[in-house]
From TrEMBL:
Residues 5-325 form the NADH:flavin oxidoreductase/NADH oxidase N-terminal domain. The keyword Flavoprotein applies. Keywords: Flavoprotein, FMN, NADP, Oxidoreductase. The keyword Oxidoreductase applies. GO terms for molecular function: FMN binding; NADP binding; NADPH dehydrogenase activity. This is NADH oxidase. PANTHER family: NADPH DEHYDROGENASE C23G7.10C-RELATED (PTHR43303:SF4). Transmembrane segments: none annotated. It comes from Campylobacter showae CC57C. InterPro entries: Aldolase_TIM, OxRdtase_FMN_N, YqjM-like. Its cofactor is FMN. It comes from the Bacteria.
Amino acid sequence: MQSLLFTPLKIGDLQIKNRIVMPPMCTYKAKDENGCPRCFHRLHYAARARGGGVGLIIVEATAVEPRGRIASRDLGLWNDEQQEAHARLVKECVKYGAVMAVQLAHAGRKSECDGLIAPSAVKFSESYKTPRQMSVEDIVSVKQAFVQAAIRAERAGYAATEIHAAHGYLISEFLSPGINLRDDEYGGSFENRARFLKEILSEIKAAVKIPVGVRISADSWAKGDWSLEDSVRLAKELELLGAAFIHVSAGGFFERTDSAPAFTPLYQAGYAKAVKQAVSIPVIAVGLITKASEGEALLLGGVCDGVAYGRELLRNPNFAQAAMSELGCAELIENSYKRAFK
């Protein structure tokens, strides 16, 4: 029987050669704070694509405006110079057969840069500055920044985009009742707190033709705050709005938590399964998945449609080839690498 990990995955109109996903992982390597991918990034991502490797590569959190960077050396897509540099990165990777996506992000109150903004003036921790509460004009401006970044991503050749609505960054800050203390149409009820994300998704969808997915934190790990039940409800609504996939992570909302699980292999898989049971679009699972057999088991168990190997792909750029050998698909390994897996 053919390994499920090496069967094609379809996201929207995209045909992805296998179900190995490289999730977005910041490298903080932009030079001179210009936000542009450089030679490092072209080597870093292409190394995971070569040899018949990773099917879907989601490039690290890429800021939609300067104040939206997590740190000053983050990548960006807020100007044309950055777009051109991203185009060179995409070109370097697609020639090896990977489908390239990019995660569009805004750090909100978890930025180390100047000009912090957030739904409410509540800082992340004592080591962070207090953000300014966003005005309605700020909300409009940030939504437009997401749209313009998505347009640039499409022009750069990315086959898909992912909206970063996880890990306590700006969009997930709006979702959290413990962070979002607003009393206007963007705060209070679930519907209001989800409005910012839903409007970003809808406006990007109207502006580009490529698939648009969303990464969520399924649980904020704080009792009485954002929960798995909330995420399942949100996922259903995002599907109705045309989201192409849901990428399920967790945590990151608060410096201190009271209900975080033990960080053991597959510790977030249950979140992905709950979301997958609620939607018909592809779901990507992540969370200390390091073995080919673990990914295969998740797919066989109906937990997810794509398997994100984060830390493992940092450790081993040739993980995909090793997985092909382990799962009986050695014929998929390019000849240049086959002798390593005999």
